[in-house]
Amino acid sequence: MNNHVKRIWFLVIFLVAIYICSYLIFRTLNTEVWKNDNKPYVIFPLSMKWVYYFYRPAVYVDSKLTSMQFHIGPHH
Q1: What is the three-class DSSP state of 2?
Q2: Domain hosting residue 21, numbered range
Q3: pTM above 0.90?
Q4: Residues of the chain below pLDDT 50
Q5: Of 15, 31, 40, 62, which one has the fewest beta carbons inside 10 Å?
Q6: Between β-strands 39-44 and 31-34, what pairing exists: parallel, antiparallel or unpaired?
Q7: CA distance 6 to 36
Q8: Across-strand partners of 69?
């Protein structure tokens, strides 16, 4: 592989690592247990739906691997 291709691969891997780490931080800071079913939910802010759509690929993987629940806005 030439040097240009290695740089591109490094950049892609670096950006994916940042994405995953930022999702894990968001998930940790925004998880709460809903008292009606005692299950943990990651709560996405209603005022910033773009955050949900930004992390949507990670949400699909997370829900399959951990059975975590997700919700946009607070539970009622």
Answers
A1: coil
A2: 3-72
A3: no
A4: none
A5: 15
A6: antiparallel
A7: 51
A8: 41
